[in-house]
Amino acid sequence: MRRQWRSVRGVIAVAAAGALAASGCAPGGGSGGNGGGGALDGVELQVAAKWTGVEQENFEKVLDAFEKDTGAKVSYESTGEDTGAYLGPKIEAGEAPDVAILPQPGLLAEYAGKDALVPLEGDAAKALDDNYSDYWKELGSVEGEPYGILIKAAHKSIVWYRPDAFDEAGVEAPATWKDLTGEVSGTLSDAGITPFAMCGASGWTLTDWFENVYLSQAGPEKYDQLVAHEIKWTDPSVVKALETLADVWGEKTMMAGGAKGAVQTDFPTCVTQVYGQQKAAMVMEADFVAASVAEAGSTVGEDALTFPFPAVGDDAPVVVGGDIAAGMSEKKGTQELLAYLASPEAGTTWAGLGGYLSANSEVEAGAYADKTTKDLAQTILDAGDNVRYDLSDQVPSAFGGTEGKGMWAALQDYLRDPGDAKGTAEALEKSAAAADS
C-alpha cells in the first residue's frame, strides 16, 4: 500500500515511523498518537472546511488517522456556508488555517493570485500526480502550478426518494423531466404525498437545480460558454432553463411548505423532511445526502433510493462538484497532511464512513459502504466528455458562492416567486458582470 503522504525526512528521523512505512500498515497503526514518537510529534495544525454535522464528524475521523500515525495534532474549524467570508479576514490578519478546504475552484484561483496559497511540493505533489487523473490535476492548478487536491467529490445529478411513497402512489422512477414533473409528481400529489423537499435556505442547492436543467437542456458547449461568461446570463437559453425550473418551483403543491417553506428550509433539514419526518417523497441533492439519510434512521439502498436527474433535453446531466484541499502555510506538517489527504488510505477510510465519493483513482470500489455509492462513483468515470464541474463553483465566488449575493440570492428570489424568468436572468447578468469587474 502506498505511503506517499508520509514525510521522507520524518521516516528517516523516526525509526518507528520508518518501520511502519516498511510494513505497509494502514493509517492509525503508528505509535505517534500513543506517545511513542511520531514523525510530527509536537506539530499543531489547523484545518478549516465548511462541513458540519455528520460530514464534519466523518472528516475528523480521517484526521484522527493522520494524528495517530504521525503524532501531529490537528484542530478543525467550520467556515460555515460562506468559506470566502470566513477566510478573507483570516488571511488579512495573518491567521489563515494551515490547510483550507475550498468548495470552489474560483476561490483557489483567487487566493493563489493573492499569494495566499502554498504550491504543492514533495510527497503532496507526488501523491496528486500518482493518484489523480489529468482532469482533476488541472482543476487544482493555477497557471500550471499545482495548488489543490480534490479530496471529496460530489455527484450532483441525483434525486433521492422514498420507495414506500412511490409504491403507495403507484409510480416508478422517471427518465425524463416531463415524466418527473408530470405523471410522477402529479400522481404523488393526488395520493396526498408532497413530491419535493427543497433546501432553498442553502442557496447553493438552488444553483445545483439550475445547473442540471441547463446542462441537459442547453448542452455542454453552452454550459462552458456560460461558465466563461462568453454569453450573457440574459441569453435565451438561461431564460428557458429558469422557465423550466418553474415546473417545480412555481407549483405550491410540489414543495413541502410551499414556496415560503422551501426558501426557509436549509440543507440538511430538507433531507430530514423526506427520511425522518416523511413530509415529502423526494429531495434533489448530491451523494453526500447519504450521511444525513443515515442520521435520519434510514438505510441507503433499502428505504432510501436514488435515480439520475432526469433528462430535460437529449441527455441526462452529470454535474460534479467537490472540495479542494489547499495549503495556506509553510509550517512543518502542512505538506504532509496534504499528501495524506491525497492518499488512497485517506480516501478508503472516508469511503467506508458513507456520504463520500473520491476522485482518487486508487480508491477501490470495495471501499464504499453501499452499492448505491459504488454505482455513483462509476457513473462519474463513465460520463466521459459529457460530465461538467459545478458551474457556480467555477465562476467568481462573489457571484457563484456567496450568501445573500449573486446566484444564491437571485435564485432564492426566483424560488419565492418564479413569475419573471427574464427579470431573474437580468439580475444574474448584473451580478455576474459586477463580479467580473
What would you say this structure looks like, in words?
- The chain is globular and about 65 Å long.
- It has 437 residues and is α/β, with parallel strands linked by helices.
- The strands form three sheets. Strands 1, 2, 3, 6, 10 and 11 form a six-stranded mixed sheet that branches. It has a three-stranded antiparallel sheet with strand order 8-7-9. The chain has a two-stranded antiparallel sheet with strand order 4-5.
- It is 47% helix and 11% strand.
- The chain has helices spanning 8-13, 15-23, 53-70, 83-92, 105-113, 122-131, 134-139, 163-169, 177-190, 203-218, 220-227, 236-249, 258-264, 269-275, 289-295, 334-341, 344-351, 371-382, 397-400, 406-416, 421-436, and strands at residues 44-49, 73-78, 99-102, 141-142, 145-146, 148-155, 158-161, 282-284, 305-308, 319-327, 388-389.
- The termini are far apart.
- It folds into two domains: 8-155 and 320-380, D-Maltodextrin-Binding Protein, domain 2, CATH 3.40.190; 158-317 and 395-436, 3-Layer(aba) Sandwich (D-Maltodextrin-Binding Protein, domain 2).
- α20 packs antiparallel against α21.
- It has 21 helices and eleven strands.
- Keywords: Signal, Transport.
- Belongs to the bacterial solute-binding protein 1 family.
CATH architecture group name of the largest domain: 3-Layer(aba) Sandwich
CATH class of the largest domain: Alpha Beta
Q: Remind me, CATH topology of the largest domain?
A: D-Maltodextrin-Binding Protein, domain 2
Count of helical stretches: 21
Distance between the termini: 48 Å
- The rough form would be described as globular
Give the fraction of residues assigned to helices: 40-55%
The CATH superfamily of the largest domain appears as Periplasmic binding protein-like II
- Rg on CA atoms, Å: 22 Å
Mean pLDDT across the residues is 89
Count of DSSP E strands?
A: 11
InterPro entries: Bact_solute-bd_prot1, SBP
Protein name: Alpha-glucoside transport system substrate-binding protein
Keywords: Signal, Transport
Signal peptide: 1-21
